[in-house]
Amino acid sequence: MKYLAAIALALGSPVAAEVVHADAHDFEVSQSVAVKLPAADALMAFTRVSDWWIADHTYSGNPANLTLEPKPNGCLCERFPGGGGIEHLHVTYFEPGKYLILTGAMGPLLHEAVNGVLIVSVKGEGEGSRLTMDYRTSGFSNGSGDKFAAMADKMFADTIDHYRVYANGVAGRR
């Protein structure tokens, strides 16, 4: 996968994706994308998940049901149309324009004995910025950490590309 990411970068792909590490019980995936927004605006655009998240990567099938509160004790949460909901990730750290750190087990990992941390960082780059998402998990995933890594890598690659399109659209309206 590292080689695929390098090839994608060489060919000018807007998204860099990589499975950094994977074994039976843990994994790390990393995604990075350049956007045409300053760092502070890029991170705030990231928090507006209901505007850009992929419907197929929600339980309800509708990203309008998602919220992300960028503050300690906030969450990336989803409400269900018939009542109830899910806390996908819990916000543990937020530094405007720099970092958003969330903890939790996303998607099918919710049913495993796994801890996860999603570190979203942003840095100025040229006239815009680069947003990076690193998702790391550890714990008992029934010996399937490497399989979950491939699924997470694909999900985050698709998701960050949707974010890129959204963020660059926001930049284009300025």
Structure description:
The protein has 174 residues and is α+β, with helices and mostly antiparallel strands. The chain has a single domain, classed as 2-Layer Sandwich (Alpha-D-Glucose-1,6-Bisphosphate, Chain A, domain 4). It is built from 3 helices and 8 strands, in the order H-E-E-H-E-E-E-E-E-E-H. An 8-stranded antiparallel β-sheet has the order 1-2-8-7-6-5-4-3. A hairpin with a 3-residue loop joins strand 1 and strand 2. It is globular. The N terminus is likely disordered.
Short description:
This protein has 174 residues and is α+β, with helices and mostly antiparallel strands.
Provide tags for this entry.
Alpha-D-Glucose-1,6-Bisphosphate, Chain A, domain 4, eight-stranded antiparallel β-sheet, 174 residues, 8 strands, alpha+beta
Low-confidence stretches: 1-13
Assigned CATH class:
Alpha Beta
Lateral strand order in the biggest sheet: 1-2-8-7-6-5-4-3
Please identify the structural class as seen in this structure.
alpha+beta
Molecular shape? globular
CATH superfamily: START domain
Q: Could you report the average pLDDT, rounded to the nearest whole number?
A: 89
Q: Output the number of helix runs.
A: 3
In whole angstroms, the N-to-C terminal distance is 36 Å
For the largest beta-sheet, the strand count, sense and barrel status come to: 8 strands, antiparallel
Number of domains: 1
Rounded to an integer in angstroms, the radius of gyration calculated over CA atoms is: 16 Å
Find the count of extended strands (DSSP E, 2+ residues): 8
Q: Multimeric state of these chains?
A: single chain
CATH architecture type: 2-Layer Sandwich
CATH topology: Alpha-D-Glucose-1,6-Bisphosphate, Chain A, domain 4
**Strand composition percent:** 35-45%
